[in-house]
Amino acid sequence: MSIKQFKALVAASQHGSFSAAADALHLTQSAVSMQVNALEKTLGTALFDRSHRPLHLTASGQIVLAKAREILRHYDGIQDALAETQPYSGVFRLGAVPTTLTNILPRAVMLLTEREPRLTLNVISGLSGALAEQVRKSEIDAALISEPANLQVDLDWQPVTRQKIVVVAPPDSTEKDVRDVFGTHPYIRFNRGAWAAPLIENRLEEMGISMDTRAEIESIESICMMVAAGFGASIIPDTGMRIPFSPRLRTLEFGAPPTYRTIGLLSRSAMQKENIRAKIHSALTNAVSLAVEN
User: Fold this and answer.
1) How far apart are CA 31 and CA 34, in angstroms?
2) Which family does it belong to (predicted)?
3) Domain edges within the chain
4) 75-84 own/partner pairs: CB under 8 Å, 24+ apart
């Protein structure tokens, strides 16, 4: 038995096929298949029922998978233990939703580079759903995203900050009630692909408000610019940093009690970069605290 065989087993189980596991491990399909076959031969039992697509683990396979993950966790822990004695050196691939790119992340990167001068942070922007899938497929190391509705057992979630959902209206508007705001101004919808969107849609349904939607935009900064120009009104997460919106915008409460979304760090439970992941999470939470203090 070998570490490579255990990695092949875990990847095939996670991705549902040898070809997908090969892509995740940057190997050929035949190489992954050979690793799993060799492990099965050593153990004297089939680990997958190959008559199903996607692959199904046998009862023996489920037992071995649990032990393989445990072994890999300890194996990866060796590097993490050594990393605690010296500065991290290497690349960390971090996904981030667009709303964090201009507030939480820049300050956190500054804190990180002071503490870890040999760390290279490769930041990839995207919506929460797409970034979560990249984490699951090991295409990125972690992602700063909205809290998942359902967390898979092999993923880890660490909250960073909570953001209140608010109504933003043009600077010359005078309406004091949410219904009046959207009875007067067209609705600029925050992208429905964002994980925060159901929070907004559910509250609108509870309030019985129908919207005259004129645009749907992914960028909160762009939404704020359009609202400031008088194009319409919107409902978006308040980033909670120093300048979440243009100072000219009016903000109103979005019903009671307030609705919040939580932003946090999603990563795989077992990963080789666990030590630096903890430092990145610490820098993110510190960045939020510093912004609140200022």
Assistant:
1) 5
2) Belongs to the LysR transcriptional regulatory family.
3) 3-83, 90-162+262-293, 163-261
4) 75/3, 76/270, 76/271, 76/272, 76/274, 77/274, 79/272, 80/272, 80/273, 80/274, 80/275, 83/275, 83/276, 84/275
Q: What percent of the chain has pLDDT over 70?
A: 91
- pLDDT given at position 186: 93
Quote the CA–CA distance of 166 and 253 in Å, as a whole number: 5
* Model confidence, pTM: 0.66
Give pLDDT, residue 59: 92
What is the Cα–Cα distance from 294 to 287, expressed in whole angstroms?
Answer: 11
Question: How far does CA 234 lie from the centroid of its chain?
Answer: 24
Query: Which CATH number is 90-162+262-293 given?
Result: 3.40.190.10
Fold type of domain 163-261: D-Maltodextrin-Binding Protein; domain 2 (3.40.190)
For 63, residues 6+ apart whose C-beta sits below 8 A from its C-beta are none
